[in-house]
Write a structure and sequence with these properties.
By secondary structure, the protein is an alpha/beta fold. The protein contains 11 helices and 8 strands.
């Protein structure tokens, strides 16, 4: 099966450099018309310039592709709506959204200013929500859409000094879960990519030899699979250095203890049974937890 995007229109945010640039170039090389969005600010979210997005557009056009530049901040919903309209006005539709824009404001939680916490959440989470909201009516109308969130191993598993980033990145997975459910009947598939790549955001965080192995290009295949018409939905793919994995949020079988004054003591004593992973499931929706708990309670009655 060829992974091609002929006739498709894609928007990639934060595509002026690093991983976003590679995403935009790859989509264009496989036939997509690409709106390249980038505020042109620093890795800390400071400043702004349209030159970064335009440089990628020029690169795509030089290779024979079609592309447009956009300098909107994903934190500005009106600007994001105008960005989506720009793509629709030019090409008539939007098929693919890759939410890649992001910044870092790393510090240990004890030293972190809450303004920095809020800004990182605003860019990563609200930025993704703004973009999804802006493309959603177009995707519903055309009964087709593919949305890729950019999550992170920091969100999935934690990382020292990145409480704000981790919170925002795991929140994108929560957004993905519900949008995939709501978009299912409209052929809108929503997935998440957890990349490990050497970009401006990872400079200084890893040894150079490690950064050399983590070329952004190695992550792109996972994005292409998640953005393609054959994509799964509600899938979290991890990618880095040419390797690919999947992350799952699971629910264990658990135990039923009922009500009683000594339930806290029983739970403490049997916690290993609760957390045992044998027979765990990946729930189809949040309702699975309550359903499983009620079933155990009813079974215990008799």
């Amino acid at each position: 099966m060829d992974i091609d995007f002929k006739g498709r229109v894609a928007i990639v945010t934060g595509a002026g450099g690093g991983l976003g640039r590679q995403h935009a170039l790859a989509l264009a090389a496989r036939g997509a018309r690409v709106l390249v969005n980038d505020l042109g600010g620093s890795v800390h979210g400071e400043g702004g310039s349209a030159s970064a997005a335009q440089a990628v557009v020029d690169e795509i056009r030089a290779a024979g592709g079609e592309a447009l530049a956009n300098g909107a901040s994903v934190t500005d919903f009106a600007a994001v709506q105008a960005m989506v309209q720009q793509a629709v006005d030019a090409w008539g539709r939007v098929d693919v959204l890759v939410n890649n824009a992001g910044i870092l404001r790393d510090k240990s939680f004890a030293k972190m200013d809450m303004a920095d916490f809020r800004l990182v959440v605003d860019v990563h989470l609200m930025g993704a929500a703004h973009c999804c909201k802006a493309v959603w009516p177009h995707m519903v109308a055309q009964q087709y859409g593919r949305i890729v969130m950019t999550t992170s191993s920091t969100g999935l598993y934690g990382n020292f000094g990145q409480a704000n980033y981790g919170a925002a990145k795991l929140a994108q997975v929560g957004l993905m879960q519900t949008l995939a459910i709501e978009g299912g009947k409209h052929n809108i598939r929503v997935n998440a990519l957890a990349p490990t790549a050497a970009t401006r955001m990872t400079e200084g965080l890893m040894p150079q030899e490690v950064l050399d192995a983590l070329q952004p290009e190695a992550v792109v295949p996972a994005m292409l699979v998640l953005a393609h018409e054959s994509a799964p939905t509600r899938t979290v793919l991890c990618a880095g250095a040419g390797s690919f994995e999947a992350a799952h949020i699971t629910l264990t079988q658990g135990i039923h203890l009922g009500l009683g004054a000594d339930v806290p003591e029983q739970l403490a004593a049997r916690l290993a049974e609760v957390t045992a992973r044998a027979g765990e499931q990946v729930p189809a929706s949040g309702a699975a937890q309550g359903s499983a708990e009620v079933q155990k309670a009813l079974a215990a009655r008799g």
